[in-house]
Amino acid sequence: MSIKTSGLHHVTAIGGDPQRNAGFYLRTLGLRLVKTTVNFDDPGTYHLYYGDQSGKPGTLLTFFPRPDAPSGRIGTGQATTTAFSVPEQSIGWWKDHLADAGITTGRIANRAGEDVLTFRDPDGLQLALVAHPQGDPRDPWDNGHVPAEHAIRGLHSVTLSVTEEDATAEMFGELGLTFAGQDSNRLRFTAGEGGPGAMVDVLVTPGTPRGLVATGTVHHVAWRAPDETSQAAWREELVDRGVHVTSILDRQYFRSIYFREPGGTLLEIATDQPGFAVDEPLLELGRALKLPPWLEPDREQIERALPKLDIPGENNRVDRTGRS
């Protein structure tokens, strides 16, 4: 393809209770809630975006929290692990920190020269913290719960589970990703210059049951497009190749198209702009429920349908460097 992605934009998962979700990601993992809105396709459900200070593409894990939804099943045909990037010397600190928070972790493993610590969130979503040996230059969000020297820098990678790799690998090549190596049944592909935030692993597990997307699983994985013109060209090329792609959808903070890779995982291509400060100041991100213009007339009805959600005050704190 003539268009190539520079890396991950965000990962969206399905959670359970929104208050528990916010408490875990803000206080245990130390991320910032950069937008409190609703699922535009299901306005009775929150859409919570967690990331760095401003919610830059490549730092975002987002949730549709549905308290009454059934538990999902992790398996093939979905993204099965979402990994965050942390400083190389911080894995041991994180293991102790998560243990203090009552979170069970796996052993610290080394994979492709990177230290990896696996765990699950309160709804069972599979997560990992990965320390890249070349480091990660992205600035962390410092809300006081996780020291800045150990804090998450953004997304590291996602792992997709498939029963057969050829067609998935071919599509990633068409999206501009490069095959970067293989370790047993795990294949790694990188976007752009590679490194944290620009990697996807494809885990090949023939005979593994297909996953069920519900609470505790990933709904979709989004890749970056620099602008709407590039996204439109990308969509045209995908359609020409016989891929079923949605129309371009206005998500208020970016524009999106959706399609499935051959292994079954739902993918999205999302634009970098306009970003999360389009409807509220940077200092106030995530504090209030924001609705797009076409849902604003239904605000009263929507607010009545949503569970109560209290946002911790440190979500809008000024960090120790004096930056807001």
Automatic annotation (TrEMBL):
Gene3D superfamilies from the UniProt entry: 2,3-Dihydroxybiphenyl 1,2-Dioxygenase, domain 1 (3.10.180.10)
Ranges for region Disordered: 305-324
Ranges of residues in domain VOC: 7-132, 154-272
Stored Pfam families: Glyoxalase
Source organism, top-level taxon: Bacteria
InterPro entries with a match to the protein in the record: Extradiol_RC_dioxygenase, Glyas_Bleomycin-R_OHBP_Dase, Glyas_Fos-R_dOase_dom, VOC_core
PANTHER family for this protein: RING-CLEAVING DIOXYGENASE MHQE-RELATED
Protein's recorded name: Glyoxalase family protein
